[in-house]
Amino acid sequence: MSKQILHYDRLSQKIPYKYAIPIAVAKRAEALKEYAKPYVTPIENNPVSIAFQEIQAGYVRIKNEEILRILLPNVK
């Protein structure tokens, strides 16, 4: 089985909110540590890595993304 490589840069292109990704990873990692089962086959047994892998694979989404769009700068 080949290992999947986690790329923050690729994820930040998919989710363009600078601070939303770490918050989502932290919240999901906390849930994994306390009670949740992973949606993916983990690369390592670290809740933060598993959470990042789940978000990258699209199993975990950020709620209320439309609210975050307000925070994006309108630069021309």
Automatic annotation (TrEMBL):
Coiled coil: none
Listed GO CC annotations: DNA-directed RNA polymerase complex
InterPro entries documented for this protein: DNA-dir_RNA_pol_omega, Pol_omega/Rpo6/RPB6, RPB6/omega-like_sf
An MF annotation (GO) of this entry: DNA-directed RNA polymerase activity
Keyword Transcription belongs to the record: yes
Catalytic activity field: RNA(n) + a ribonucleoside 5'-triphosphate = RNA(n+1) + diphosphate
UniProt cross-references to Pfam families, sorted A to Z: RNA_pol_Rpb6
Enzyme Commission code: 2.7.7.6
Keywords from the UniProt entry: DNA-directed RNA polymerase, Nucleotidyltransferase, Transcription, Transferase
GO biological process: DNA-templated transcription
Record's subunit section: The RNAP catalytic core consists of 2 alpha, 1 beta, 1 beta' and 1 omega subunit. When a sigma factor is associated with the core the holoenzyme is formed, which can initiate transcription.
Stated role: Promotes RNA polymerase assembly. Latches the N- and C-terminal regions of the beta' subunit thereby facilitating its interaction with the beta and alpha subunits.
Protein family: Belongs to the RNA polymerase subunit omega family.
Protein name, UniProt field: DNA-directed RNA polymerase subunit omega
